[in-house]
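Thread: quick sanity check before group meeting

JM: Hey all, I'm pulling together slides for Thursday and realized we never actually wrote out the predicted structure for the chain we discussed last week. Dropping the sequence here so it's in one place. If anyone has concerns about the input, flag it before I start.
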Amino acid sequence: MPFRKPVSTLGGLNFWKNIDQNEYFIMQQHKTGIWPYSYRILMRSTSKEIANANDIQTIREDWKYLEHNAVPRLNETGFLEMTRLEDAVMIILKNKLG
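JM (edit): ok, ran it. Output follows.
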């Protein structure tokens, strides 16, 4: 799974289209294909990228992982505070990446 430490998207939102989203995350596809990867997942609250992939199947697997592992944790009391949200995603990513 190509999860990564949350990084800034550095703008360029016009080159991406949303293909799925929920309360916490946005999945996007690059419009032109001239990018090192075709798909990415952003944290909605910060617009930081937390996953990327070159094929839809891989990014959908990442999406499902986040829905089943991150979202339940984010719904816990206090997890909507920005620092706690980023901390929760980092813990989940570290566990997934090993």
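AS: nice. Residues 25 and 43 are 5 Å apart (CA to CA). Residues 3-97 form one domain.
JM: adding both to the slides.
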